[in-house]
User: Fold these one by one.
Assistant:
Number 1:
Amino acid sequence: MTITHHPTDETLMRYAAGTIGAGPAIVVGAHVSACPHCAEAVRTFEALGGAILEQTEPTALSADALAKTLARIDAEGKREASGDNHSQPIVIDGVRLPDTLKGCEIRRWRWIGPGIHMSRVGVPHDPEANLILLKVGPGRALPDHGHVGTELTYIVSGSYTDALGQFTPGDIADVDEHVEHQPIVDRDGECICLAAVEGKMRFNSLIGRMLQPIFGI
Amino acid sequence: MTNREEGESLYLTAEVLEKLLVAVATRQDRDAFGSLFGHFGPRIKTFFRRGGMSPEMAEELVQETMLRVWRKASHYDPGRAAVSTWIFTIARNLRIDFNRRQRDPSLLPSDPVDVPPSIEDELLAAERDENVRLALAKLSPEQQAIIRLSYYIEKSQTEIASELGIPLGTVKSRIRLAMNRLRAVLDEDQ
Ligand SMILES: [Zn+2]
């Protein structure tokens, strides 16, 4: 996997800070797992979080806070947190999806236009998350997701090309609403990508915007 | 021994914090845990409060964070991250979990998902820590404030603009400048 397109520093910082939102976190996490360069940047931004926590001025805790915590430690004994949740990789159309989608509901493809299928991903803890899988045929244009905020697109398989260059598996497109771009899937095969749109935009309007250029409604 | 005012928290160096956490990990040292609690608990409380959490909830999650510090202490690797960074990630994951449960009350508290494991460390933790502290100190107070806000609250730039009462364009350029300066300082120190 040769990665050439990375998220912006601001996106990586908010991912490390845990303030980016559930959908975008899944898309950025997919890239970070595949990209040593961004994994290192995330560690740096986590260290920045540590420094910020260290410099945050203290707020007094209630007098018995420590005693209560010690009592809880006594009550639960030496139990270790079980950190392992190894489960099967998620596969769609023979293509392995990023592990950051574990726990999400992956629904069936829906035809939304010639050569274009979409599946809205169910993010269990965030019903309003605008996270979608897109499968677009060779030579087809990706539908306009109707940017209202930042849009993050991770390439799972295949490739597309737009004004920013060619995007291949592992790459992420991190573009805000001012970037004019029209990705066209490369001719040698279909392209599956995972996209999140930031903000509280309702899905209905998202579908509407996606269908608009296709049906001219 | 120093005489502390009530409510005032200890200030301890990174080396001391590391020794304390290792003492918790290797011999379940309660005094060491108490010192870590005194140092981090009040700071974590502010961290949660800045994100808009109620005082009661913040207090509750401080206890939960420190409980996890106790439980997971043996997983701490000093070569990988400073104690403050490690505890920050625990508090951050708990806040993500809390926010999810706010949106979906049917969800049970879970062990929060960790950020994917890293591939390999390019820098020593101590070096990275030194770099970010230097970088942060070199930012203007306004730039520092906007970076801190990015760590405290889950808000879009538009929401941050209305919260600070400044135009969106100003927020955007302040963030961009702050990120550019951070990146410049981080790169030059590598
Ligand atoms: Zn990257």
Note: The radius of gyration of chain A is 20 Å.
Number 2:
Amino acid sequence: MLKIKDLHVQVGGTEIIKGLTLEIKPGETHAIMGLNGAGKSTLANTIAGRDDYTVTEGTITYQGKNLLDFEPHERVGEGIFLGFQYPVEIPGVSNLNFMRTALNGVRKYNGLEAMTAADFMKLVRAKAKALDMNPDMLKRFVNVGFSGGEKKRNEMLQMALLDPKLAVLDETDSGLDIDALRIVSEGINAQRRDDTSILLITHYQRLLDYVQPDFVHIMIDGKIVKSGGKELAIELEEKGYASVV
Amino acid sequence: MAATAKTKQQVEDMSGDYKYGFSTDVDMDMAPKGLSEDVIRFISAKKDEPSWMLDWRLKAYRAWLKMEEPNWAKLNYPKIDYNDIYFYAAPKSQNKPKSLDEVDPEILRMYEKLGIPLREQEVLAGVEGAAKVAVDAVFDSVSVATTFREELSKAGVIFMSISEAVKEYPDLVKKYLGTVVPQRDNYFAALNCAVYTDGTFVYIPKGVRCPMELSTYFRINTENTGQFERTLIIAEEGSYVSYLEGCTAPMRDENQLHAAVVELITLENAEIKYSTVQNWYPGDKDGKGGIYNFVTKRALLKGDNSKVSWTQVETGSAVTWKYPSCILAGDNSVGEFYSVAVTNNYQQADTGTKMIHMGKNTSSTIISKGISAGKSHNTYRGLVKVLSGADNVRNYTQCDSLLVSSTSGAHTVPYIEVRNPSAQIEHEATTSKISDDQLFYCRARGLDEEEAVAMIVNGFCKEVMQHLPMEFAVEAQKLLGISLEGSVG
Ligand SMILES: Nc1ncnc2c1ncn2[C@@H]1O[C@H](COP(=O)(O)OP(=O)(O)OP(=O)(O)O)[C@@H](O)[C@H]1O
Ligand SMILES: [Mg+2]
């Protein structure tokens, strides 16, 4: 699905990712953990194609294609989804309109017809219900005035609608209450299939109790310094970064 | 029968007495360049006007001669040579496009995005021989015109060209023309009084709610009506009308100078909702060409409890100078101004409103959204004035500017003059740059860069756009996106 080889990324002239290698196969769930400022979000943004995140060395291959050849919106069409650590507010744009535009954009990219308003409403209501979201949030402006947890749930709703091949979820568990964590985890698990992959970025072992990863990686200073199974996360939780790496 | 033939037939069936300002005769003579009393006499004679109208024009002309072009706006354009302008029907250009193949591809792309049918594209782009079709195209898209007319006359609504109104309803026109915008109000208004070519007259009788939205789009007949347009709308006691001006598609226009005057009058308990989409040619990417648009729009809220609401979406013209205003004379009257002004490349807009509170308990709301991209300049200029006799006035003003590029300018110039201590005036202003985070968030949801800009800008303008009538709103939204193409930076 995704092959990252010796990746170096600069942001604002500073090298943040310093030789990172990672392979994710279809059907796999990987978790990346690491100290604040290690470069986890930078990696996520680079995969999504953010401007000004300059790849100076290395390659990213996605489904056999050079991912760096694609514009951000094309990557979405190709099946990549980024769940934001800090979802952005867009005043004046209704959540429904935003999501419908997104979904129809992806459909168009894949040669499918636009979904009618009625079909879309049915779909979005069902998905919102599964995430136990208040339907009023669909009509509000995108993320405007949403609580931290509501924003994260809104990200999950968008993921469910776009049904990506590769979901990169940047601290989707931060700021969630216990019930919300369970619900969001169910959402992530529902997205796990033989033909999909998930990259979780998290600080907490708790999420990994619900969404059991196949691999756990520890990222420090722009590199993956240690990889293992889910027991690595448990060890990390008990002993802290200093003694594990 | 082919569509065109059919509409022609319809036009003929309506015979000579078709009242609503359509004309199938597009052959026009022209006056020589420049302005003189003779040219004005020529215009008046051409239009077969009564002598009072000619006198009125001449009076305006003499006043204009003694006036100075205003220079207080934040606008920069070369001096206009009034002797080098055709004031009545410019000659038919020799280099009109022969077909759409010869039309600027940028313009064609815009038509396509707006979903305009091919035949109408030809008309708008001024393709040779398409003018004849203009009438047909308009009729075709509005073959309903006949039903339209019947419904209006049943309600007693008068909706016709102002030239016809001068002849058919001289008393009404005489009573109101120039009462809201006096001839000497300003340089461009005086010019318009002297040379106005045509425009629209609307009269809504007492207690009538106009059964449909009135649109100028139904009244385009020659290439030149836009240049010195004159509109007069009178809403009698307890009446209501919603009027739409303009069209989202950019029209080919050989006249660089536009100076329109719009006068609205509301009597007791009457309401006028006036919506504009202005998309005249803005000039090219390097700032060459484009329309100079100097417009005077004003409403006199004469009766108590009356209401006027201006909504404008301004995306076109190289230079825009325009301040739709309200004189709130009647007690409890309400004035509203909702504006979106987009400037890109080298466009300049200096626009805003004046709310003059004379009556007691009058209130006004001003919401202005300025979006500047490219190397453009966008100025909000507004006046809120409360006269001493006006007790308990309220005004709320909100001016937001959004910079799409770092090379553009946004300026806010609010004037507040209050002579009555009971007034409550609120003013809020913000300026922000379109955020990279927002852009990336949209792009990470599958929108390309232009769609992302359009989405964010439409969100920014939401409070204004929601005041547009439905049929305008959808097109205007598309238009915002198109006007800002290639503007991020
Ligand atoms: N535009 C920029 N210019 C310079 N440095 C930057 C820029 N953007 C991010 N950085 C730096 O890059 C480093 C990595 O940031 P990143 O957001 O990827 O960390 P993270 O691992 O996601 O941290 P957290 O766990 O706190 O979310 C940080 O030190 C940050 O300050
Ligand atoms: Mg982060």
Note: The radius of gyration of chain B is 22 Å.
